[in-house]
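Spend some time on this chain, tokens included, and walk me through the fold:

. . .
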Amino acid sequence: MSLESRWHPQSAAYPGQRSHASGLVVEPEFYLEDHGGRSFNLAPFFRYDAGDPSRTHVDLREAYLLLFGGVANSEWELRLGVDRVFWGVTESRHLVNIVNQIDQVEHPYKEPKLGQPMAHLTFSGDWGTAEVFGLTYHRARTFPGRFGRLRFPFVVDNDMVSYESDAKQWHLDVAGRYSRSFGPLDLGMSVFDGTSRDPFLILDPDRSGEPAFVPIYEQIRQFGLDAQVTAGSWLFKLEAIRRTGARNRVGVEEDYSASTFGGEYTFYSVSGSAVDLTLLSEWNYDGRRQYATNIFQNDFFLAARIAFNDVQSTEILTSILRDADSTGRVLTLELNRRISDQWSLRLEAITFQGIQEVDLTYLTRRDSFVELNLIYNF
């Protein structure tokens, strides 16, 4: 359970937006297992937000039955129900991670995920790990409401969502991934065919006649590659995709490639202390450049993570995302520290600097914020 307070120091850009919001998050987890090892996992999610009613929501993050067994020299595992899947290795962006929809009202950049109904079959052995997914229902992305910050000039109306497929949200999406370690190299290759998780927004009157953004979800195909090489204190990372079927920023269908490449280096036991310092650097590139539908068209990411390795598990992460095509910068600072066995604290600050009209972040340029979380673990 977490108590949260978020404050926006600058006045709002759009009418009705509030400068302060507080709320409560509850994330219980339940686990049942029979004598044969078969198990059922349940992880509901609830958020109450006093500042933006659209941010108050309930979700089923996980609710799946887990079965497993062996075939020859390989093992299999089957998950049936609602689950979350993570693919990727980089820090600033997770390009290949496409199975679950983003819960956008939770955080503008950390990409928290909604639960996704699925059948997930995994085979693993000395030859690697192969995964196959059948995704049976599309989840629309969440967006802040009229009173919320970090939104567009007009709210996104999910009651008017539309799909390219005649099957709408019931289109059967499929995905697969193969991964294997080759010495210091961890390699993953993935494919997705189905309804995009990224909506294209068009301006249209809502049912009351007010202008609103209507989300459209197209049919896309994506091929992904993720790789990480470990060399002593160095980690070199790469994520790359090739996507077809999606519209660009001006609404024209455009096939494109995108990548995130970089690395990190850790200085262990700095000056003989228990402190570890990790420096990170990544380059994000989208082949559509100025027509990209995200803020990562040509951006450099620099960060430093300090782990104090004390009994309070204190960690500090600071970063800057710098647009190479403009003066736009997003600076972040995050502190995590345990207060007692049950209580912990997380403080986060995000500020937007030098944002120009050509930047997608221009729409949220006045939405820098400071957020404090008090977390209690039962």
